[in-house]
Amino acid sequence: MNALPPLTRKLLRDLWRLRGQALAIALVMAAGVGMAVMSYGMMRSLDAARSAYYEGYNLAQVWVPLRRAPDSLARELAEVPGVAGVETRLSGAATLDLPGIAEPVLARLHSLPVRLNRAVLRSGRMPRAEHPNEVIVSEAFAKAARLAPGDRLPALVYGKRIELVLVGTAISPEHVYAVAPGQIFPDNRRFGIIWMAREPLAAALDMRDGFNEVLLRLAPGASEQDVIRRADRISAAFGPAGAYGRDLDISNRFLTSEIDQLRTMVRILPPIFLLVSAFLLNILLARLIDTEREVIGLLKAFGYRSAPIAWHYAQLALLLSLGGVALGWALGLWLGRGVTGIYLDYFAFPALTFSAGADIYLGSAAMALAAALAGAVSAVWRAQRLTPAEAMRPPAPARYSSGPLSSRLVRLLPDEPSRMILRGFFRRPLRTIASVLGLAMALALYVASASSTDNVERLIQLVFERGQRADLALSFTEPRDGRVRRELALLPGVQRAEPYRAIAAELIHGPHREREAVLGLPRGSALMRIVALDGTTIEPPPGGALISSQLARKLDIAAGDRLEVQVTEGQRQRFSLPITAVVDVPLGASLVIERGALNRLLREGDVATGAYLMTDPQQAPALFARLKQTPLVASVSVAANAVRGIRETIAESMGIVTLFNTLFAMLIVVGVTYTGARISLSERARDLASMRVLGFRKGEAGFVLVGEQALLALAALPLGLVLGMALSRYIASSFSSDMFMIPAAVSARTLAEGVLVVAVAAAATAVLVRRSADRLDLVRALKTRE
Amino acid sequence: MSERPAIYRTAGLTKSYGTGPTAVHALRGVDLTVHAGELLVLLGPSGSGKSTLLNILGGLDSATSGQAWFEDTEITALDADGLTEYRRRSIGFVFQFYNLIAALTARENVQLITDIAEDPMAPEAALALVGLEGRMDHFPAQLSGGEQQRVAIARAIAKRPQVLLCDEPTGALDSETGIRVLTALETVNREVGTTVMIITHNAVIADMADEVVHFADGAIASHTSNPRRRPPGELSW
């Protein structure tokens, strides 16, 4: 210690003396750095894992779904410029009847891959050619449905009953995020992927001399759009003309949207923490320099130049932020590893390790140091500008004046301690505003984070309680006559059945083309209603179509315009229809017309491709047992399961995120309140000691300190609630994608909890500092000047 | 004078800091009686123990051994809360550095005390007694040192304390301002009957007292009575 220059020794002692405040500020800074390291690192890790997975296991770049095509088509596609690899396969859907699961379980069948979309074996072994019934299934499905090698899976494929034997589990780059068609959250118990040998699958699908899907790899630099266009033209005779790239692959879309969400979070959260820490550092340094005026004057009088003095105080800021950065790095790494574990529950990667590069660590440190210096600069500037004479003069009593607003308010107060609090509040308006903003941001952070659950509950309410009121949605293996309704009504427990018609189509408006399903709903449907984000129910108008605002934006179409529809299945009809309304649809159908009108446009008579059912829950087991035996039904989705899936997914992932954001919000509150109260204690120590000497009790003197922080917190509450609701709305809209729109619906409960979190954290901190006030040395406070 | 009742009595009062050979003995057995209504001046060099005595009598500090009574209350036996109540009810303080609350005006600084006192004067009356009726709505930063000290006196007397304890009340003031402050203290003693104890370095001030106690090395070196009090206006230094 003695070898150190005296100013360095002073620096270390100052830091030790101010350790409580330094720690509070460093922790707030660490939260910002940690969030940045975690988010950027996670974005990069997900991206890297995805690329490695896609490349290592040869994920296709273009999918060409077909009805049935001969081998010659594969050869033609291979000759398309830009195509580097072609693989044909068979794909289909199956319903499984698994013991212990009442509902029919839906599975996606693929023929075993050869070169493209290869599966990674996770347990067991690959099916053997001599055993045609052997299959491997997706690992998450096997886990959730409690399947193990050797289990037998009775399946209904294309109307045929076959028994499959499970021999292994696997994951695949094509199904990193596996959701059943039409769902957005995984339900691994009721949906899985099954790979089986090509021959038996072809037999089950009646496709012995062909295939129904082609996967393409592109040459480096090839235009995906060109390839898709040519592939569609070449395969026009064999299928729905619906080649698409990775951007429309559902698994990849979810992965991309997750990375985008991380990007949104990293734009909002770290800056809040760094701003707050810069402000706290500013008031800490400003106060330190105020109390050390005489020291600064003395040093200058003895010949110290201004620069080393400025550097002395700047070093304090730097040392403190280096501590914050180191803590932040550790926090980021820890959070990153934890979040990786959560991601592995949703995304099936062969390996996902959290790794943020040196540039992320250094970049986050640079950000934190820049914030610290920004916070320090004005205080340090004042220190270096002080002239020795000015610095050595005793400071005048703190200047208070009676501004018109503050004096009017002050006069309303009943006692002097309250007046002290209110005058302090108005005396340093910038500090007061910054403290209030800091606390408000903490509250906003809590509200925005906790409201994600509210938003999802609102989504569930809109989509399932007000919109899709059916208990079950069935889709048929092939279009059926509308009279199927009577057959359905005879099934056990079915109270009401409403057939619908869905077709795959290409929607055309001017130069814009989008592939989407067109949904025809019965007039006056009670089981499936279109509910807008604002809660209004909209009936498909006779002779026109409702379009979701997301799809309308992509097609650049407005109400009153006409939309061209090119059907891409069956007889490939083409027609046009007027758009009568553009609706903010939270989730589900994008283009809806009345079923009768759709059938007339298709000139196919009364046809349905599925039905919505209202059922008696008592008879569900009997109904499910019947449905499992019915070749008519391709899939069954149970509203209650979908809702449970959404709630579980959100509860699990958001629960942890909300817990952390609650802690982080409290950290900001503690940082702002602790620093503010310590500074206030330092500024008011003499006042408080004087009050104690004059006969005020500990509680009465401490009231000034605690009351001041309470007033700041109180002022921050309304602002924080408003900011929180705005932030919630922003996050909801930026998390909304073309697959779903999240309503912003902050509940009163969330707001109340936020207020409670801020109030408890502020009160606990203020009371902690009050205990230091209780221990003030009365005699010394009287002898010192300030 | 001796027919007045004693307001303070001490017996063998000592105060030491630390233990063993490095111990500092601030008070080495002080026996002193102060009578109600007296104006007493404590003289002595720095470190002679006079402030320590005043702090113990004022309930700000505790004694190491010995006893001190305020009327019938043994203040050396009171706990921290008891001392707070004792200060709150009975004692007024005036300090060298005034110790006004910067966030409160002159009137409000006085009101701060009258709000918690049982039978206080009106703040305006207390300020008038020290000649500050015209500066009541000024903040400390807008007052001179002498004016700030007179606000401090007004604040101390407004709750009608039995004792006014003043530690170097003129220490930070020039002589003319100092005399104005002493005049205010003398007025309070004469007109309200408050017992006043003043600590000072300045021997001239002893002439305005009834009793003069000299301190040296933690003990009373001499205790004399003035036959006649000189009005502060006649003093000069």
Please give a structural write-up.
- The complex is a heterodimer of chains A (786) and B (237).
- In chain A, 54% of the residues lie in helices and 19% in strands.
- In chain A, the strands form four sheets. In chain A, strands 3-4-9-6-8-7 form a six-stranded mixed beta barrel. In chain A, strands 13-14-20-17-19-18 form a six-stranded mixed beta barrel. Chain A has a four-stranded antiparallel beta sheet with strand order 2-10-1-11, with helices on one face.
- The mean pLDDT of chain A is 87.
- Chain B has 237 residues and is of the alpha/beta class.
- Chain B has one domain: Rossmann fold.
- Helix content of chain B is 28%, strand content 27%.
- In chain B, the strands form two sheets. Chain B has a six-stranded mixed beta sheet with strand order 6-7-8-3-9-10, with helices on both faces. In chain B, strands 2-1-4-5 form a four-stranded antiparallel beta sheet, with helices on one face.
- In chain B, strand 9 and strand 10 form a beta hairpin.
- The radius of gyration of chain B is 17 Å and the shape is globular.
- The model of chain B has no long low-confidence stretch (mean pLDDT 90).
- Chains A and B meet through helix 13, helix 19 and helix 22 of A and helix 2 and helix 3 of B.
N- and C-termini, Cα separation of chain A: 30 Å
- Termini distance of chain B? 28 Å
Mean pLDDT of chain A equals: 87
Low-confidence stretches of chain B: none
Helix content of chain B: 25-40%
Number of helices of chain A: 22
Poorly predicted spans of chain A: none
Radius of gyration of chain A: 33 Å
Protein structure class of chain A: alpha+beta
Strand content of chain B: 25-35%
CATH topology of chain B: Rossmann fold
Largest sheet entry of chain B: 6 strands, mixed
Average pLDDT level of chain B: 90
Number of strand elements of chain A: 22
Estimate the global geometry of chain A from the Cα principal axes. Answer: elongated
Spatial strand sequence of the major β-sheet of chain B: 6-7-8-3-9-10
Class inferred from helices and paired strands of chain B: alpha/beta
Q: Roughly how many Å is the radius of gyration of chain B?
A: 17 Å
| CATH architectural arrangement of chain B | 3-Layer(aba) Sandwich
Please count the beta strands of chain B (DSSP E, at least 2 residues each): 10
